[in-house]
Design brief:
The chain is α/β, with parallel strands linked by helices and 155 residues long. The protein contains five helices and seven strands, in the order βαβαββαβαβαβ. 28% of the residues are buried.
Length: 155
Amino acid sequence: MVAVDPGHVNDRSGILDHRILDITAALAKCSNAQVHAVHAFFTATIAAATVGGVPLVGASADALSPELKLRISQIRALGDEYAIASQNLQVEAAVAAEYLPRVSEDCRADVVVMGAISRGLGQAFIGSTAERVLEALPCDALVVKPTDFALDLPF
């Protein structure tokens, strides 16, 4: 069982998602494993309501619905492109460090393939979200970086 976290919609044209899914497809084929595409996202609605780095509580389901539908359609399109069964696609407005480990455990994943985008000097090698997810995963992980990640390094 291979779980994958695509959905880096702010990534340069989805290149990282395709790298993640290409690697996942190769791993799944070699090990005759089933692929689950699992994506947690921090909504624009919640981000807009953030004060001093702390999200405000109480974003309504109606406010989240359009973004959730968009994310589901994006993940569904990626799933179709990589022949991932629709019942193996899971998208939720959630904290990645909580959602991905929980779903990985529920689907008994052997490995999670995920992307990492560094966004600053302190995270030159792996993003802070990826680090938090890695600490909580119940299984092994393979972290995939964008091919051009070195362009964003400050040195």
